Amino acid sequence: MLLPAALFATLAAAFYWGLMNSDDRLPSALTGKAVPEFDLPPIEGRADGLSTADLQGEVSIVNVWASWCVPCRVEMPLLVELAARDTVPIHGINYKDAPDAALRFLDETGDPYTRIGADRSGRASLDWGGYGLPETFVIDARGGVAYKHVGPFDRRSLEEEILPVVRRLQTENRT
C-alpha cells in the first residue's frame, strides 16, 4: 500500500520539478540560418510588400500577426512603442487575413510596420517555421535569423531578450 503512494509522490515531484525548471522558449530550426526565400505582396491598400531582399543590409524585426489573433492585439502596443523609438525597423507578415480586416486592425491598434507582406495562403509563415501566432524574429544584417520569440511578448521579454539581441547585432554590424 505504501509502494503506490511512494511512486505517485515521486512522479508528482518529478513533474513539478520539470514544470518549474524548464526553458519555455521554443527553438527555431532557422536560428543561425538565412531566412527562407519569399516574396509577399502588400496588403491590398498598402504600398509595400515584403520579400527576402528587404531583410538584407540592416538588423530588423519580423513579426507574424493576424487581425483575428487575440495575443497579437496584446503585444501590439509594445510594437507601436518600439517603432516610435526608431531603434530597429519592424516588418510584418500578415497571416491568412482578409485585407479589410488587417487594415481595420492596424487602424485600431496602430501600425508599427515599415513593410507588410500578405501571406494569404500561410505558406511563407510555414516556411519560417511558424506554429503559433504571434511570432517575432530578429534578423541580422545578412538576412539570417538570430532569434525567435513565440507568442506575445511583454515588456520584460522585449527589454531582456529581444532588444539585447538587436543591440548586439547592430554593434557587430558597425564594426
Automatic annotation (TrEMBL):
Subcellular location(s) of the protein: Cell envelope
Chain ranges of the Thioredoxin domain: 29-171
Keywords: Cytochrome c-type biogenesis, Disulfide bond, Redox-active center
Any one Gene Ontology molecular-function term assigned to this protein's record: disulfide oxidoreductase activity
Swiss-Prot/TrEMBL GO biological process terms: cytochrome complex assembly
UniProt xrefs under PROSITE patterns: THIOREDOXIN_1, THIOREDOXIN_2
Entry annotated with the keyword Disulfide bond: yes
Signal sequence segment: none
InterPro entries: Periplasmic_diS_OxRdtase_DsbE, Redoxin, Thioredoxin-like_sf, Thioredoxin_CS, Thioredoxin_domain, Thioredoxin_ResA/DsbE_sf
Keyword check for Disulfide bond: yes
A GO cellular component entry from the record: outer membrane-bounded periplasmic space
Pfam families: Redoxin
PANTHER family: THIOL:DISULFIDE INTERCHANGE PROTEIN DSBE
Similarity field: Belongs to the thioredoxin family. DsbE subfamily.
Protein name, as recorded: CycY, thiol:disulfide interchange protein, thioredoxin family protein
Native source organism of the sequence: Pseudooceanicola batsensis (strain ATCC BAA-863 / DSM 15984 / KCTC 12145 / HTCC2597) (Oceanicola batsensis)
Organism lineage string: Bacteria, Pseudomonadati, Pseudomonadota, Alphaproteobacteria, Rhodobacterales
